[in-house]
Amino acid sequence: MSSGRSSSVAGRLLVVLSAALLILSFPNFNLSFLAWIALVPLLFAIENKTPREAFGLAYLCGAIFFLGTIYWLIHVTLPGMIGLALFLALYFGLFGLALSYALRLPCRQAGIANYGLLFFIPAVWVAIEWLRSSLLSGFGWVLLAHSQSTALPVIQISDITGAYGASFLVMLVNSAIYITIRDMRTKNSRTIPCLAVAVLVLYVSVAYGTVRLKNIFTGEQLKVSVIQGNIPQDEKWNPDLSGKILDKYERLTKEAAKDKPDLIVWPEASVPGFMETEKTLSDRMKALAISTGTHILVGAPRGEGSYARLYNSAVLFSEEGRVVDRYDKVHLVPFGEYVPLKKIFSFVEKFAKSQIGDFSPGKEYKVFKFFIERRSSGGGTEWKLLKKAKFSCLICFEDIFPDLTRQFVKNGAVFLANITNDAWFGKSSAPYQHMQCSVFRAVENRVNVIRAANTGISCFIDQKGRVTDIVESGGKAIFVDGFKTGVITLTPTRTFYTVFGDIFAYLCILYAALFLLYQKKKF
Description:
Elements: H1 2-24, H2 40-46, H3 51-69, H4 78-104, H5 111-134, H6 152-155, H7 158-161, H8 163-186, H9 194-213, E1 220-228, H10 242-257, E2 263-265, H11 279-292, E3 295-304, E4 309-317, E5 323-328, H12 342-345, E6 368-375, E7 383-395, H13 402-410, E8 415-420, H14 430-445, E9 448-453, E10 459-461, E11 467-470, E12 482-490, H15 496-500, H16 503-522
Parallel strand pairs: 1-2, 2-3, 7-8, 8-9
Antiparallel strand pairs: 1-12, 3-4, 4-5, 6-7, 9-10, 10-11
Helix pairs in contact: 1-2, 1-3, 2-8, 3-4, 4-5, 5-8, 5-16, 8-9, 13-14
């Protein structure tokens, strides 16, 4: 009994260690190197455990991890934050459950089986991450890959595998370390040098990344300015402050216009009202576009049918003040912009600190198309066509969905704008974690991603995942106001990932399933 209790305590300590190392791998700690060893303790904790015990230990690891990384949701709803963390921990539990079968199979004592197990563990991890990112609206936040967003040589394989490839690499190294230590402990003379195999795979992946980082993207150039208004969340929809808010955006836009950009981008819901019915708002926006002589993309709520339907939208104004086109957000935030299965979950609204929206989803993966024109040098009314720009807009957390993002690129977008408002989450790690998602969308599709965020982070991310320009003040990137102008290169591309999507994740799911079936049948 004493030995069993001691083993149980040791297992929990290992689980806590894994969760802590994982948390430290993400913002604001940013100790990304810890991710390469973070899950080794969890693997040892699961070893020789029953499926039920393994599920429980992995679930505990997930619960601690998510409470430590998405804690910022307490600024919206404490019960909701706890509930989401405990729900997401189920995916960790599924990982533990799958591993419990593999680690208890007799094949683990054979050298060749170690090789299979080496790839099985990261394959299961990728399968679970894909499920978490896809099922029930999906929540592909703080994936293992995201911890490596600044490790540029490592993440370049994402143009083939998606972010899941980087997650696979990190978990592969964890798997190799676990198997190596385990076999050294058990003095297994038939072991395959798994660590060497993992290093070889990592070397090939990094070599590919190094080559891709040397690529030069050519094409027409576009000058873009992003505006960061830094409007407090409790002021955004105060009707008495709408004039003040618009004044601030106008001032920043006119300052940015001095850089002569081709496009100026405002954050999500930056227009404080409905331009369809509030003529003052629409007139001011048109006048601003005309006075600056620049196309302006703004975030604004939009209503139809006397507001029977509400949309979270992006609207593009031309330099002549007309509306070129608009995009209605396709993927809404559950329990933020709408309540799923409202008859069942209506009680959730009682726990929210602010009212949950009742938005409708858009239907079209819109690609904005506009011509950049300037008056000819001779004056008069002649116009000269300089360049044609095609881009799409990701609103709020739409950039965490790789499959959604690639649909825009497949439709013809040559760069992406992510407009968002992370003011909800206070001065936390949320905006930094959010930016990590945008980095992977840029690499997966080899497109520039331009971010305009109300309170930050507003920045430019190039096709290689590098953050090239960022709105800062006093060394701070969040909860400051300002603008930044950058030049991007319009390079139409179609990566393997853009065309084929999550093939790598599907192969991981298939491999994991076949491994378990084959080994169970064999033994």
